[in-house]
């Protein structure tokens, strides 16, 4: 779903990791420039350098822009999972997982993996008790996504941990997955 176009006097661009503008329809980081955008962090040049590309504020949102200038937020950059050198958008995996009738809610996170850097896990609230949920969901996901995007762990939960804004607490869920893996080692 589009968040619309940049408002008057705001220049919005989608940039790659090198700060170059990406072609229409490709995913990159949303960057904005306007007179009402802060020029940086007070007395914090290192943080300012990380948050800006030239005069453009890097929002931390992964987005794409269509030919009409409509902007579509895809995910948060800090939530991007890098597994074996491949980038995986949690929202893409969550959307595919949510298509299955067994899944009521799901949150996908990366967890630490010694070989791949990160691996993919899904915390799921099931609609019904199903002893073979993991195999069923794995088959479903493999029919929809490339193998490297398929979760390696499906963890049923009775409720999702929420943060102070009542959104899924991805840090707590990631920690839960890391704890679960460390218990099996």
TrEMBL record:
Keyword Ligase (UniProt): yes
Gene3D superfamilies: 3.30.300.30, N-terminal domain of ligase-like (3.40.50.12780)
Enzyme class, spelled out: ligase
Domain AMP-dependent synthetase/ligase: 2-42
Gene Ontology molecular function, alphabetical: long-chain fatty acid-CoA ligase activity
Keywords, ordered alphabetically: Ligase
InterPro entries (UniProt xref): AMP-bd_C, AMP-bd_C_sf, AMP-dep_synth/lig_dom, ANL_N_sf, ATP-dep_AMP-bd_enzyme
A Pfam family the protein falls into: AMP-binding
Residue ranges constituting the AMP-binding enzyme C-terminal domain according to the UniProt record: 92-167
EC id: 6.2.1.3
Protein name: Long-chain-fatty-acid--CoA ligase
Organism lineage string: Bacteria, Bacillati, Bacillota, Bacilli, Bacillales
């Amino acid at each position: 779903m589009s968040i619309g176009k940049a408002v008057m006097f705001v220049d919005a661009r989608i940039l790659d990791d090198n700060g170059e503008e990406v072609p229409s329809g490709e995913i990159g980081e949303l960057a904005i420039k306007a007179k009402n955008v802060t020029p940086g962090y007070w007395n914090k040049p290192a943080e300012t350098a990380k948050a800006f590309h030239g005069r453009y504020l890097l929002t931390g949102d992964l987005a794409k822009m269509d030919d009409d200038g409509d902007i579509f937020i895809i995910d948060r950059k800090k939530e991007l999972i890098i597994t074996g050198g491949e980038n995986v958008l949690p929202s893409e995996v969550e959307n595919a997982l949510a298509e299955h009738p067994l899944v009521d809610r799901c949150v996908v996170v990366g967890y630490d993996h010694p070989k791949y850097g990160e691996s993919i896990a899904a915390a799921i609230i099931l609609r019904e008790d199903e002893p073979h949920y993991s195999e069923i969901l794995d088959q479903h996901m493999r029919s929809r996504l490339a193998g490297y995007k398929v979760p390696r762990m499906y963890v049923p939960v009775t409720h999702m941990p929420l943060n102070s804004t009542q959104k899924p607490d991805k840090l707590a869920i990631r920690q839960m997955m890391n704890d679960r893996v460390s218990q099996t080692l």
